[in-house]
Amino acid sequence: MSQQRERHAEAVALIHAAPEQIFARLDDQRRLAAHMTKASWMTLGSKFNFELDQFQGHRVGSVIRMNGRVAGIELGLDEIVNGYEPPLRKAWATLGEPRLLVIGAYRMGFNLAAEGQGARLQVWIDYQLPSRAALRWLGWLLGPVYASWCVREMVEDARRGF
Description:
Blueprint: E1 7-15, H1 19-26, H2 29-32, E2 48-52, E3 63-70, E4 73-85, E5 89-99, E6 106-115, E7 118-127, H3 133-160
Antiparallel strand pairs: 1-7, 2-3, 3-4, 4-5, 5-6, 6-7
């Protein structure tokens, strides 16, 4: 990521399942980002497609590609898994310059810690505004809303799964 100031969003929840069970659910990148494959108001009625490499996002170095169209604009990005410690944490980051509207390059991940009869799940994103000046104002305005929605959706999906 460039020298631009990073912004942060996270969501946390106590899930009533063992960290191993939660990790197994979240380690499926298609399920983890399922909110991006369904038309919603946050995606302006559009949806993204996923392409996974032969490692399916299950190891450091694995590459994940997402692409789609929003309001007729071609969007896409490549991510690389850069942290993988089952059943406690997984992290990934964009490769190169993502073609997105309200956020730019980012690092993202989740952490799990046993707590009581379940586990504490934290999903986080550190992101930059889009690098293109024409989109930076849109990112300044909507980036925090989008980033918060994204991490909340991932946490809520995990909670619903258990």
